Amino acid sequence: xxxxxxxxxxxxxxxxxxxxxxxxxxxxxxxxxxxxxxxxxxxxxxxxxxxxxxxxxxxxxxxxxxxxxxxxxxxxxxxxxxxxxxxxxxxxxxxxxxxxxxxxxxxxxxxxxxxxxxxxxxxxxxxxxxxxxxxxxxxxxxxxxxxxxxxxxxxxxxxxxxxxxxxxxxxxxxxxxxxxxxxxxxxxxxxxxxxxxxxxxxxxxxxxxxxxxxxxxxxxxxxxxxxxxxxxxxxxxxxxxxxxxxxxxxxxxxxx
Amino acid sequence: xxxxxxxxxxxxxxxxxxxxxxxxxxxxxxxxxxxxxxxxxxxxxxxxxxxxxxxxxxxxxxxxxxxxxxxxxxxxxxxxxxxxxxxxxxxxxxxxxxxxxxxxxxxxxxxxxxxxxxxxxxxxxxxxxxxxxxxxxxxxxxxxxxxxxxxxxxxxxxxxxxxxxxxxxxxxxxxxxxxxxxxxxxxxxxxxxxxxxxxxxxxxxxxxxxxxxxxxxxxxxxxxxxxxxxxxxxxxxxxxxxxxxxxxxxxxxxxxxxxxxxxxxxxxxxxxxxxxxxxxxxxxxxxxxxxxxxxxxxxxxxxxxxxxxxxxxxxx
Lengths: 256, 316
Known about the structure:
Chain A is an alpha/beta fold. Chain A has eleven helices and ten strands. In chain A, the strands form two sheets. In chain A, strands 6-7-8-3-9-10 form a six-stranded mixed sheet, sandwiched between helices. A four-stranded antiparallel sheet of chain A has the order 2-1-4-5, with helices on one face.
């Protein structure tokens, strides 16, 4: 098996005295969609922030195509082709859509930027219509599209997506995930997708990991995760068996 | 040769004295021009405030003292009794020196409080202001000094109207500089990146914008603008180490204009500058000095975001 594009090895991370990531290892092979599932506070966002260099790891290594990027400055990591689409969009609210996209390409000086912009408009035609509009006035779904498009402007080898479904209607979530799937299939963009919405995430992902309290508790193909009873029960809401609700919380997860 | 021009700093007094017995219109025009010239200096200092706030979310209470320091550097380079360089060389030298100084200040001092609460920066910059006043006092003394500038004290006559060339130059330079800054912020990649990193610092990091380097460049730019303001101010009158306290008026101007708005900073400066000579002319002397602050309070009461506030509140 060839080496994965992104490799995380035994990563440990702290928020002050709090250990947010307790030894996480994962692989994202080139051209695949890998999802990390988990509840609030599982450490998913911290994991992405550490990969993109906004946080420094305490221990462990992060390798991109074999070269370590752990603890580097975020702008150097972006230049190497890792772009983070943060949770809650985080667009530049007072800049226009056009300027937001230009900021996405801040690290680039090559001539292909203009061509990439046109390609991106092919995926997000609405952004082309709103080019001169102030980004803060876009709807939530449009802002999420802008956040993804802005990240694509950096010409990433791998895109880290933090909860792109957050706060969006099911219809918009479907639309955005369909675009992500197309980007992966047509443009070969590798995706590391962090989600609470396990159903949509497992739908487009090739492989998945489940995080709980800073650890990976389960990993496997998306297909395998979908079939797992624990996943069905705790993330897909598939448990319709006992009507006695309190039983659910007492049951121990086996992550088998 | 160290000449001081008593009263020159109080331009309203000069305008008044000049127009005794002339028609009211000419007097008003002269008050307007000298007010605008003063206002431009306030506006330039306010621009420095707004710039640093806009790009780095820091409030730099030493901006007025940077202006004073820039003026002294220019004076030290230009005056016969000091280095005696040609005026324009001294100007460029002072602007460059203050840009480097601003950059170093960010690099060595302000970066230490990066990520700390706002108040840390406020206290730090107030302390920096004291320090600059003290250092300027040691180097250049505490007596008022005048910059030997080719435009100082030259009058231009338009019929009955007599205007100081220095005042006209101040207005012209300020307009050009503001237009340049406006273009820089709205057209260039670096300018937009400065705006971006102030609007959403974390997102700027995610996009690979080197936020800290941008902060350094912002301080360099603020230092350069302070030097320009200082040179213009020193061309209009004399300076001493406490000249930097003018920054308080400029701060009021920046707040009136809407903190963080570049056109607002200039407009606020002009408003404060225009109020002063008219208040000095028509209001009892004890009360005239509070006029700019009275306006500040009115603006805060009725338009708390300032006159030129950005349309959308920033999401935190």
